[in-house]
Amino acid sequence: MRIFDAHCDLLYQLWRRPEISEWNDLNLHVTIEKLFQFGAKVQCFAIFIPVDVTNKLEAAFAQASIFYDRIINGFEKIIHIRTKQDLLALRDDEIGAILTLEGCDPIGHDLSLLSIFHQLGVRSAGLTWNFANLLADGALETRNAGLSFYGRHVVGKLNHYHMWTDVSHLSERSFWDVIQLAHHPIASHSNSYALCPHPRNLKDDQIKAIVAKNGLIGITFVPQFTSSRSRASMKHLLNHLDYVSGLAGENAVGFGSDFDGIDETIEGLEGYEQYPYLLNTLSKHYSESQVEKFMYKNFADSIPF
């Protein structure tokens, strides 16, 4: 069974600690060795810049360089996915890598920088990361403002490039502004607010709105988004999958682990090596075709670029 994971932060970890090995470092949730060993077919690699970094553009370019130098050029069988055709051309022994941007802070006031990131291969972008920037308010901003005029222009540019617009970190009002404008919205790593009332999760009407725009929801492995009452377990994660797929349908749900962007993990999902365990668990509850959709096909089929 092939795996499409819509979000991980390996690039951030390699940027933060250049001395660690992307191949097999024991402290990483995702390593290249694990991707090859445990069924990866497409992995999305996020450029993530912490809020306390002063020169965000420099840091973003540094992570893009890591993507090329240590992931794409470092391994012959990892193929950079820029178009749907690139994905369809993958051989059985190859893994596709998609570069994404987790927050548009690095582009600042300069919309032309988005063009540069697109030329570098970025194919999905979130407007902000939890807090406010020039484009929008994030999920943790209590004022809950929506998109700025500039933010609307950025969404228009994402539409022009046929990129995914990622709503996972937006405030609720910003979410609804994006839903009105975006041609290809996704939530790369969010769970159900009804089951776990965290600001980063999606309410029922938001889930339905994403589906109405032919978007995707990536169920995520972040413990705090999975269970608010006890340690998150595989059962809690399956509850989110059941609930979201019940609202969205079996064609609109996949997975976005957020591996290496989290300090704690769900019990039984401590790293990429546990994906086969998730697959086996899903197989006990869903048909083979449904499992294939959740694990790979839904995100793969929805690629707009």
Sequence-ordered SSE layout with sheet pairings:
Elements: E1 3-8, H1 10-16, H2 32-37, E2 40-48, H3 56-72, E3 78-80, H4 84-88, E4 95-102, H5 112-120, E5 122-126, H6 149-160, E6 164-166, H7 172-181, E7 185-187, H8 204-212, E8 216-219, H9 234-248, E9 253-255, H10 275-283, H11 288-302
Parallel strand pairs: 1-2, 2-4, 3-4, 4-5, 5-6, 6-7, 7-8, 8-9
Helix pairs in contact: 1-3
Features:
305 residues, alpha/beta, 9-stranded parallel sheet
How far is the N terminus from the C terminus? Answer: 24 Å
Structural class: alpha/beta
Query: Fraction of residues in helices?
Result: 25-40%
SS summary, helix count = 11
Mean pLDDT: 98
Low-confidence stretches: none
The value of Rg in angstroms is 18 Å
Structure explained in plain terms:
- By secondary structure, this protein is of the alpha/beta class.
- Helices cover 37% and strands 14% of the residues.
- It is built from 11 helices and 9 strands.
- It has helices at residues 10-16, 32-37, 56-72, 84-88, 112-120, 149-160, 172-181, 204-212, 234-248, 275-283, 288-302; strands at 3-8, 40-48, 78-80, 95-102, 122-126, 164-166, 185-187, 216-219, 253-255.
- Strands 1, 2, 3, 4, 5, 6, 7, 8 and 9 form a 9-stranded parallel sheet that branches.
- Helix 1 (10-16) packs across helix 3 (56-72).
- It is globular and about 50 Å long.
- The relative contact order is 0.15.
- The mean pLDDT is 98.
